[in-house]
Amino acid sequence: MRSNSRTPARPLRPAFRCSACGHETAKWHGRCPECQAWGSLDEGPAPGSSVRRLSPGPVTHPAQRIREVSAEVVRPTASGLAEFDRVLGGGLTPGAVILLAGEPGVGKSTLLLAAAKAWAERGHGPVLVVTGEESAAQVKLRAERMNALHEGIFLAAEGDLEAVLGQVELVKPRLLIVDSVQTIAAPTVDGTAGGVSQVRAVAAALTAEAKQRNMACVLVGHVTKDGAIAGPRVLEHLVDVVLHFEGDRHSILRTVRGVKNRYGPADEVGCFRMVPDGIAEMPDPSGLFLTRRAVPVAGTCTTVALQGRRAMPVELQTLITPSGAESGRRTVSGLDPSRAAMVVAILQRWSGVSLAGKEVLASTVGGWKIAEPAADLALALAIHSSARDASLPAGLVAIGELGLAADVHPVPGVAQRLAAAARVGFEYAIVPPGSATDRPRGMRVVEAASLGEALNFAAGDGVVRWMHRGAKGVG
Fold first, then answer.
1. I want to staple 44 with a disulfide (CB 3.0 to 4.6 A). Which of 17, 83, 111, 310 is the partner?
2. Do 296 and 261 have their domain in common?
3. Residues placed in the known binding site for ATP
4. In the 8-state DSSP scheme, what is residue 190?
């Protein structure tokens, strides 16, 4: 006889939510499976019921053939700051939401106030600056110091999301700047301002408002002590552009690096310098990353870093000193520590340089950060020069990636890099094989297939022999 009793429904298990990225899981973990943060899973509400079947609803925007879709609405508008527009892909796009993140005191508010002034002076429409961290009087004092007072800039000090949306309805800006998204709270969402739920709700509401009004929106974001953007990871997915504003507070250089960009290149960089009355653009900052000296110094070599469409000659400096321990430290600044350690290992294995028990220090001039492998060859030449206490010839630039077998691998944009080096006065270059076809006029370029060939050309009178006899050289 069949029983009519039903099996009781299994109770819903509690969910655990990550306070760093918002990821939910039914089981507790010591480390978040999504963002890899330790100890960030907190017990929260039970997960919702299973997805139910939905019926088709009314269509708001009928599908069009892709050829018939108009792209005029997403044409970028130049803000007036050329370096800022370079990173954005030509300017501020109507309806785009931009997240600008950076450390406290680096100058995010100053940069955006300069962008607001340039936008208003060009007559692109009203600018609404919403500040949740400072009072309106504090922002006005900074604007007076920067000479950024303009009739087209409106200022509001708000910390409530509904009040911010009310200000947008009142001003009807073409550019909205919110400083910062972590200080705005939505009254309909639980939690304090800056929490995962609050940041997600505020960003989603402002994004929807920007899309509906076809209004460019810039959100200022905080960063953690590790340099990552604070708040849920979904924040970076919601916005269209993610920018990092970087710089040492003890240096005048500031850089805006693109991390994500739906409207242009995602690896572009813009350069600025801090001045007493605000911030100024630096169209050609190459002089900050080179040292002008009358006599060459051992342990230095110049490479050309490629960031987006910008090629930048950067000097690498190394220093080798005895260490009291058996294994010396490897300290780098502005370079990738993993690649620097690999270059040191290649030198010890293939060039006969003994670095055991010695400290190796490597740094870039001016604080420029190089993450690409094209600086491997220049770093190897600089370390070898420091170990031999013999300087490299003046006017030499080295470009190339090193393999573990000490071979030199090709890198992209060699012609662009050589042109940038020749523009600032470099006369000789060592490049990977097959890269010297488009050399600048007047520059002597040599192709090195291995680290040994590069060392022979660069060390001592190697460059002199190559210059006079043209051994394996081009030009």
1. 17
2. no
3. 102-109
4. S
**Lowest-confidence pick of 169-178, 305-314, 430-439, 455-464:** 455-464
Binding site, by residue number, is 102-109
DSSP H or E run through 111: helix 108-121
Q: What are phi and psi of 467, to 5 degrees?
A: -65, -40
Cα separations in angstroms, 405 against 433, 445, 451, 460:
15, 23, 9, 24
Residues 207-258 pLDDT 10s: 999 999 999 999 999 888 777 887 777 889 899 999 999 988 778 889 999 9
Q: Say yes or no: 312 and 386 in one domain.
A: yes
Predicted TM-score (pTM) of the model is 0.78
Helix (H, G, I), strand (E, B) or coil at 403: coil
Question: Which token pair is 471?
Answer: 């051994």
Number of domains in the chain: 3
CB contact set of 132 (below 8 Å; sequence gap of 6+): 157, 158, 159, 178, 179, 180, 183, 184, 193
Bond preceding residue 40 cis, omega within 30 of 0: no
Q: Are 312 and 416 members of one domain?
A: yes
Judgement on whether residues 299 and 272 belong to the same structural domain of the protein: no
For the sheet with 216-221, list strands across it.
Answer: 153-157, 127-131, 175-179, 216-221, 97-102, 241-246, 253-261, 269-275, 278-281
